[in-house]
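Memo to structure team: turn this sequence into structure tokens by end of day. - J.P.
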Amino acid sequence: MIDKRLVPYNGLKKEPFSGSHNGMRYFMNGDDGKNSTTFTVWVYPEPWCFEQTPEEEKESATFSLSDEGMDQAMAWLSDKYEAKKERWSKALQDMMHTIAGSV
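Reply from structure team:
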């Protein structure tokens, strides 16, 4: 699903990281800036950015800012995707209708 080698987890101390996978968006952020030892990962449906998505649409989990923590985060993301695959698929379809309808 998401290749952890593409996530600059040491960089999470400086900048958040976000992306999407088949209708499921994700957002990662260090919990204490340059002093972070943990990071939080959120998942939420397309199409909106993290800031514009209602809180009730988001789920999150916190992990150690380490190679092991990143493995756990990737497993959590994969589990969330598989558990709610229909939700993400619908969000992706709805996003396509939103885009097509606005053109």
